[in-house]
Amino acid sequence: MSDMFNVLGLHCINCGRTYQPEVGLYTCPHCGEKEGILDVDYDYDYINRAISRESLRKNCETSMWRYRPFLPVNQEGELPPLRVGWSPLYEAKRLAQELGLKYLYIKDDGVNPTASLKDRASAIAVARALAEGAKAVACASTGNAASSLAGAAAAVGLRAFIFVPARAPQGKIAQLLVFGATVVSVQGSYEDAFRLSAQAIKRWGWYNRNAAINPYLVEGKKTVCLEVAEQLNWEVPDWVVVSVGDGCTIAGAWKAWVDLYRAGWIDRFPRMLGVQAEGCCPITRAFREGGKVRPMEENTLADSIAVGVPRNPEKALRAVRHSGGTMINVSDEEILNAMRLLGRTTGVFGEPAGVAGLAGLIRAVKEGVVKPQEKVVCLVTGNGLKDVANAIKATSAPLSLPPDMEKLALALKPLL
Question: Which residues are annotated as modified residue N6-(pyridoxal phosphate)lysine in the UniProt record (predicted)?
Answer without folding.
Answer: 118
